[in-house]
Every structure is written in structure tokens, then in C-alpha cells.
Protein 1
Amino acid sequence: MTLSADRPGAVLGGFVLAIVVLGGSGATAPARAARREAPPLVRLRDVCPGVRVDLRYATADNVFRRRLYDGTIAMLRAPVARRLARVQDHLARQGLGLKVWDAYRPYHVQGIMWRIRPGTRYLSNPRRGSKHNRGAAVDVTLVDRAGAELPMPTPFDEFSPRAHRGATRGVSPERQKNSRTLEAAMRAEGFFPNRWEWWHFTASDWQRYPLADVPVPRE
């Protein structure tokens, strides 16, 4: 299933799709055309069936202590999903795999998060929008063949110095090694890491994707 978020107000499969425009409209005509032609959002499992998905914001088991998504389907822009599929294939040859905690995030959810935890370095200001809102970022961890999570520096969304990229204080050598393994696999396919969160990676071409506010689909 694909969802095009490129036509404001378009309706596909029962969802109202919108592009969020921030500030004034200073974009040139070619820039606006490029945004209209942005690749669609797709279901990650359609492109990468081996990946595990546990969208934390579809439950109350997250740092915000509330459910923020209506659905549980992980979505990404099509080229980003294909990048992640290559990461999954590479890790599978090592007996490992990915579990996705967050992927595409509707723009309005960014505002809800900001109202709950304003001004934190761990959350993008909704004035700019998040790369998650573009379908170009993922929060991931490593799992073994059975789907069990490997030990990593911190739990998901622990906003502490231990979660910072390359942290060593309070982080065991095994957890450091697993984090480096994840980072190397993601970098190899064009994802760059967030310095504050070991789990967060962004596709290098994120700027080509517009902000979107289509709901996260249900099963």
C-alpha cells in the first residue's frame, strides 16, 4: 500500500492527506514541483518483510505516557524503505535484524510531543518539523534471529547522557559494541546518526521529502 502525501487535501484510502507549510511561502516553482513529485509513503513491511515493528507511540509504553498514533503500521518514503531493507538484508547475514520503534510520524503529533516536553534537545521544534514527519527518519534497534533485542546503551527514549552517540560512562562494552554494529550497518546504506540518540537515524536525502500529516494506518 502506498500513500501519497504530496497533494494537500488529497484523499486516498479514506485518509485525508496534507502537507504542512511552515512560515511564508518562499519556495520557488521548481521547488514546489519537486515536493509535489516526492515519492509516496509506503508500508515498511511491504518493502522489508523481515523487519520487526513495535511502534511505541501506538501504545502508552513511551516517554510521553500516552498513545499518540491511531495505527500500528510503520511507514516510510519509498526510497527510505528500500534503504532500510538493504540494512536488514546485510544484518540478516550476520544473524541479526532490525526492530523499528518509530518511522513516519504525522506532523500534528510533533506538536503534541512538544507541548508535553518543550525545549528539549531530544525533540525537534514543530516550527521546523521533524525528519520523522517527512518519512525520512527511523528509530531502530538490533534483534537476534529469534527477535530478541540485543543489549544497547539505554532503553528507547531514555533522554540521558548514556543515550548519546558513543557514550561510554555507564555503558558496558557489550552495549557499546552493539550500538557500533547498528551504526555501521545504517551508515553503509546512507543513514546518518543523531548525536543525542543512539537509536535515531535519518536518510541522507531527507530534504527531498515534504512534511506530511497523514494518519498512521491501522491493520
Protein 2
Amino acid sequence: MRTTHILAAALVSLSLAACDKPADEQKKINEAQSEADKKIAKANAEADKKTDEAQATADKKIAELKADFEKARDDYRKKKNEDLADLDKKVIDLETKSKNATGATKADVDANLKKIREQRALLASDLKGIETATSETWNDLTKKLDQEVKSLETLVDKA
């Protein structure tokens, strides 16, 4: 009987040890998963932080570029309006010349004034495009306007 008790005690002891082994393994698995989850969360937080910093830097750069473009637009508009005002003064002088001229001279000045007024009207209309120009259309618009101003200046100077 004693042997039976010893054998029974040994079996109970082994079965309890066997039951603890899976529990220990599960605990280790849970701890490892918890540690991995913490590392993933930390990595995600760092990635989010870097993404936010990169976006903030990009937003700042975009704002600077927009401000630079607006300044360039304002400066260009001011310069072209000054050019137009200078040309208008010359046109007034030509109109005075036309009033005082006679014969062929008057006819030539009047014909030139008609061309000048048409080209000036076109330039004034195209100058309105400055307000709606985008950075993509800016270079083409300024090239066109510069050519129109130069052409008008040439017409006025030749008149």
C-alpha cells in the first residue's frame, strides 16, 4: 500500500509539473507578444513623428514659395503698370503732336495712334491675366507681356 501511495504521489507530482509547463510557456509567449507590441507601438510613434515633421517642413516650404510667388507677381504687376503709364504719357504727347500737325504728318501720326491704341488695349487686357496666373503659366504670361510692352514701345517710339 505504501508503494501505491508513493506511486500515486509521484503521478500527482508529475501531472502538476506537466500542467505548470504549458502555463509557463503561455506566460512566456504572452510576455514576448507584449514586448513585441510595445516595440511596434514605439516604432509607429516614431514613424508618425517623422512623418509629421516632414509634413510640417513641406508645408513651411510651400508657404514660403507661395509668398515668394505672390511678391514676384506684385512686383511684376507694379513694373508693367509703370511701363504702361510711361507709354500713356508718350501717347498723350503723340496726340498733342497730331492736333498740331497737318497734312501727311497728321495722317501718319493718326494712323500710328490707331495702332498704338489697339495694341495698348490688348496689353491692358492681357495684364489682367497676372491676377489669375499660376506658377505653371507664369513664365509664358510674362514672356508674352514683355513682348507686348516692347512692341508697343517700338510703335510709340517710331510714331
